């Protein structure tokens, strides 16, 4: 039996106190840059999904206590080329936004089948480089979110 992805995902902005933001370049789409993303697995809390995806995509080990749940969700249409991963008829995904502050820029361990490269950029440049509107918008909100803490 085919196992479909759940149409529920996380977006995790990894950043430094100085607002340098980590972006990853998608292997399937060179030139498409994004923050850490990933689908929730059955039985997982969203915070667990976020921590798992951060570890899988960057090698950064973090705890749920270090993660900030923005309590923001985005709904978007799943691109046609990726719909085969979801159950028939599923057209939209619900994305939950989180952030993770790390002390400083650091090398990360990417998985070549998922990502080609990574970079740390000032938040405005990172937002401009993202292909996803929800990722861009979240990065643009980052300074305000940090000032609210």
UniProtKB/TrEMBL annotation:
Summarize where substrate binds, as residue positions: 5, 26, 37, 132
Q: What is its EC number?
A: 3.6.1.67
Q: Which CDD domains match?
A: NUDIX_DHNTPase_like (cd04664)
The source's domain of life comes to Bacteria
What's the cofactor? Mg(2+)
Biological processes per GO annotation:
folic acid biosynthetic process
PROSITE patterns, alphabetized? NUDIX (PS51462), NUDIX_BOX (PS00893)
What top-tier enzyme class does this entry carry? hydrolase
* Stated name of the protein: Dihydroneopterin triphosphate diphosphatase
Q: How is the cofactor bound?
A: Binds 1 Mg(2+) ion per subunit.
Domain Nudix hydrolase, chain residue ranges per copy: 3-143
GO molecular function annotation: dATP diphosphatase activity; dihydroneopterin triphosphate pyrophosphohydrolase activity; metal ion binding
Q: Which UniProt keywords apply?
A: Hydrolase, Magnesium, Metal-binding
Q: Which InterPro entries match?
A: DHNTPase, NUDIX_hydrolase-like_dom_sf, NUDIX_hydrolase_CS, NUDIX_hydrolase_dom
The residues that the entry says bind Mg(2+) are: 53, 57, 114
């Amino acid at each position: 039996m085919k196992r479909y992805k759940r149409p529920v995902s996380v977006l995790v902005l990894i950043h430094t106190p100085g607002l340098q933001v980590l972006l990853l370049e998608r292997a399937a789409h060179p030139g498409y840059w994004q923050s850490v993303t990933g689908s929730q697995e059955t039985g997982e809390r969203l915070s667990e999904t976020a921590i798992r995806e951060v570890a899988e995509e960057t090698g950064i080990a973090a705890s749920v206590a270090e993660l900030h749940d923005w309590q923001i969700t985005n709904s978007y249409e799943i691109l046609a080329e990726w719909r085969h991963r979801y159950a028939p008829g599923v057209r939209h995904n619900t994305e939950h936004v989180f952030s993770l502050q790390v002390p400083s820029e650091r090398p990360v361990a990417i998985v070549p089948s998922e990502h080609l490269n990574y970079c740390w950029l000032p938040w405005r440049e990172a937002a401009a480089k993202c292909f996803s509107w929800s990722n861009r918008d979240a990065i643009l909100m980052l300074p305000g979110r940090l000032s609210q803490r």
